[in-house]
Give the backbone structure.
Amino acid sequence: MKKELKKNNIFKRFKDSIYTRSINPKKERDRIQVVFQSLALHLHPTMIPEKALKFSVTWGLGGMAALLILLQALTGILLRFVYQPFPGKAYDSIIYLKNNILFGDLIRNFHHWSGTFLVLIVFLHLLRVYFTGAYHDKRQFNWVLGVFLLLFVIFSNFTGYLLPWDQLAFWAITVSTSMLFYVPLIGDTLVEMVRGGSEIGEATLLIFYNFHTSILPLLLLAVMGFHFWRVRKAGGVVFPKSESDTENKLVTTLPHLIFREFVVALILIAVILLFSIFFDAPLLEKANPAFSPNPAKAPWYFEGLQELMLHFHPLFAAIIIPTFITLFLISLPYLKYDSKVTGIWFLSDKGKQTSKISAFVGLIITPSLIIMDEYFFDFSLILESIPPVISNGLFPFTLLLLLQTGYYKYIKIKYTTNKAETIQAMFVLNLIIFLVLTLTSILFRGEGMALTLPWN
Amino acid sequence: MSREKKENINIQKEPLSRRGFFNKLWIGLGTLAGIEVLGISLNFLLSSSKMGKNDLASFIVAGKVDDFKPNSVTPFRSGKFYLSRLNDGGFLAMSLTCTHLGCSVGWNKLENTFICPCHSSSFEINGDVTNQPAPRALDLLPVIIENEIVKVNPNEKTKRQSFSSSQLTYHVV
């Protein structure tokens, strides 16, 4: 009688209509069914190779990025209830958030730090995918999608950078959008489009706010779905496969993968929370269009570009070199390789060796060139009769291209590397150059962008 | 779309069938609708640049001619320009926006130069570049002198490569 009553209980029937299974059943068969039948877990296959579970196969970076985007959406929605996207009100609304709303500061800091981590982690994810060779065959186009996701993440962060409308935001966006002036022929029109006028003002804020809170999140969401689906279609993550069946053993996704992901997610959230508690997101005084702070720096992920601006004509530093790098990244999976090694870090022992050499060369050469250009010679002074776009742009750029070509040949002949290994050496060289430029600008550029020591 | 096209290949040799006609009509109408949506969206995106336009012809009073000593620079922060008076008494109004990447240049009285805080470009009192990366001299603004009063229009910037004496405005007595 009692049992009958329980079965007919409307609440029980309602609960059963949503979900009948236990969350972590004992039988392997049932655990497979939980993953297969669940909307969220269905992103994963029901069984995965045991070897793919090893943390150093992926470092969990893709999953972390997805989690951070979710966290950004949640904290961003909260912030939207307080923030007002108008020059006269934006800054004050943030002061209000900080002073008058319970945990307002914490949520803002959390949004700031997880945005910062997101750029870093997506970049590291790109490096992981590249150095484990996970861009051949079925994965070719997914690499391109990944490059676009990186760009979307950077532009999400960049459009968010303006919103506080403080001195830091205003001048970082002024400097960065001014780079577009140097696009040949359409530069002026382009800047006017991005800023919604000739100068940064209410139209710019509205445009950036709209991109930050609707267009870019929607694009991210759509391309992320595509990106995940492509990973599944390519057969999951890459790792070295072995001949024997015992070593390629399959295990159920639940609990082996799901629990690991859960642990990584909790640790990541804890780290960002700690950052948010102890380090405030920067907020200077309210934006003043008539007075630039000294030094005025671009957002940190564009500081490598800003450092480049000090050494090259803006047409090359802001337009041609970044375009080259983006096209190089997109074309990487489509180059002709004689061997397609996947799942092995740095391809081979020779690949490891040439990568180390390239990193070393980059670490020595980049600071030397920066110091030489800063103190010893200036192409535009030596070649004074030639327009600066050639003397300070085309000339040093061609010189660098020739040097890089020479380095490519040197590595290829000296170490008899195959194509993938040689390209990898070039990738490492340019990666290190980029990192050194970025760190130089962040740490060693002081007042008037002159070289100083960070503790001065 | 491509599957429809493949089906069409068989039909194409014959005179246009009713199905072929409708297929083409659909493609045409679809393209038209796409163009319309794109046009409307672009118009929305670009509308803001019209919204923020300032009234162009608006001169503001800078001060009396005698208030500005020769070889001096006076900042007008609200109008975002500097008014230079050169040694020969000629006036020159220049935007304080650096021609490199748009930071506001500051006037350094001791060194007699404009210095940009962003990439350390510097400019002479007449706006000429003395230290790159700035690619050209500071933008000019129109100056008029009426009844001993100097007036500047801060909204009408003119780009220039370098300084020439024809850009100066003199007080004619």
Remarks:
- Chain B has two domains: 2-51, 60-167.
- Chain B has two helices and eleven strands.
- Residues 60-167 of chain B form a domain with the Rieske Iron-sulfur Protein fold (CATH 2.102.10.10).
